[in-house]
Amino acid sequence: MGGAGGDEPPPPPPGGSPGGGTPGRKPPRDRGPKRGFREQLWATVDAAQRLVAAHIELARAELEEILAEIGRVAALIGAAVAMAIFAIILVTVGSSLFVGEWLFGSMGWGILLFTELAAAIALVSVLIALDLPAGHLGRGLLVSTVVGVIVALLAGFYVFNRLWEAIGVAVAPGLDPATRPLVVGTVVGAVLGAVVGVLGGTQTGGGRSAGQVIGSAITCFILGGLAGAALGAFSAITFAWNVAVALGIAVLLGTWIALCALEAKRAQIDPERWGRKFYPSKSIDSAKETIEWVRERAPLKRKS
User: Does the reported pTM lie above 0.85?
Assistant: First the structure.
């Protein structure tokens, strides 16, 4: 139409943009050079390793905290147990000393009696564990009780002191009355002990020669005389009733320990037979029978 019509730009194509692209779509971004499959695989493995290492480090730190807490709790519990054991020992020892001083007039009696009691309980527990009949041990306790009561009565009523006094008045009236029971008791005890020693030392068992029998008799004569003299002198003491009771209890416990040891020797404990209780023989025999049964019904064939 006008003279400037030739300078107009050409119209855009239908549905297009002036730049030639699709309207509303952005051009793709440049993501750099593409990585191959191997690089991506190693990158994934490396990331997984870092993830596992992080979890391990976290678990290690948490485990260290838990172990530290366990150590603290264990130390506190150990201190509590140690103090409880100390308290038990303190109560036991203190009670034995107190009972000895309060009842029998001396802490020594408490130490002796509680030591004997502990030894007796320990020995009886072991013997029962070794399948010794509890009735035999109970019978020993009954006999020991009778012996202890007799000893307490003899000591409380000065029986031997009065006996030695009567013998001294009849045989040696010139002895000092203050020491007469002691002298007579010592002499009589020595004579009786020597006689018992000679009778025991002259036993001819075991194929001993005459010289051995004589030597044994002399040795037993001396030892028996010394032991009898000491026992006779001890029996001449006049005991108060609390001391007499303590003496009776001491004899009771000592006799019970001796009878328990004698019962253990007489029983002839067989360690092998006792140890069979801890061997599962029935289960093993049953398993062997089952294996034999299976072999009989499904015998193994040799390969050709």
Answer: no
